[in-house]
Amino acid sequence: MFFTKGHGTGNDFVVLPDPDGTYALTPALVAALCDRRRGIGADGVLHVVRSAKHPDAAGHAADAEWFMDYWNADGSLAEMCGNGVRVFARYLVTHGLADPAPDGLPIATRAGVVHAVIDEHRIAVRMNAPVITGGSAAVTGTRRLDGVAVDCGNPHLVCALAGPLDELDLSVAPGYDPAVFPSGVNVEFTVAGAAVEGADRHVHMRVHERGSGETMSCGSGALAVGAVALREAGLSAGAVAVDVPGGRLTVTRTADDRWWLAGPAVLVASGEVDPAALPGAVTEGAE
To answer: What GO biological process, any one, is recorded here (predicted)?
Structure first.
């Protein structure tokens, strides 16, 4: 199995090219690939397949040639990954599978079609609009933290803190209300930052992602945080700088209500992996 390793602000992925959809991925195989000691190591797997060749994306084939079949590190499926889609776009263009389009390269996801505008150092993705759906709360340790629920195609809970983020213990998944989030939730913890040039608001963020644990970054989480920050500032358009442990992402809402997520996307290595050598990997049916 050929693979490429990439990351977006430290949120790292195993990229598996499979244009014709011949791999029969399983949760066990994905988890084994993402194992940081016995596999390649990653927060998730980006399965590169043509939309027409995957049952979850066949309906988007007329709008987007390529489907980002995204799997979390524990082998569960996810609807969207904002950092992953930038790495996915970088992979397509770098390997000659797609050309960068001035109006954005269309990529199908389980949350719909998004569009990536690519340059040498960063990629901006026009995302589907985040929807603030109400309030809820997260529990970490003995602390109950009120938050805002945001649908970015995948579920998020944004919890603002008054104190420093480094006091949080995210080695254990935060508790949440399963009645609000029946499929689990990505939980973002934020504190306001000092003003930075080029942004209307500045926020620091840590995140615990369902299926992956605490990660260095979460692109769709940054989008959720940006949506909450703009709403709380009373702004119908603007830019939010979101600093995560792995770097900086920028969320922009334009006057015509387009939402953009921008940041770096880097490919760092390529190679081969023998699925049969991965402990616990189930590969029956893979071609």
So the answer is: lysine biosynthetic process via diaminopimelate
Confirm whether residue 236 is marked as ligand binding: no
Residue 128 is assigned to a ligand binding site: no
Q: What is the full per-residue pLDDT of the chain (287 aa) written as tens digits?
A: 999 999 999 999 999 999 999 998 999 999 999 999 999 999 999 999 999 999 999 999 999 999 999 999 999 999 999 999 999 999 999 999 999 988 899 999 999 999 999 998 899 999 999 999 999 999 998 999 999 999 999 999 999 999 899 999 999 999 999 999 999 999 999 999 999 999 999 999 999 999 999 999 999 999 999 999 999 999 999 999 999 999 999 999 999 999 999 999 999 999 999 999 998 765 444 43
Pair 199, 96 in one domain:
no
Q: Is 51 annotated as a binding residue?
A: no
The pTM of this model reads 0.93
Active site residue ranges: 81, 218
- What's the total number of domains in the chain? 2
Burial annotation 35-48 (CB, 10 A radius, 16+ → b, else e): beeebbebbbbbbb
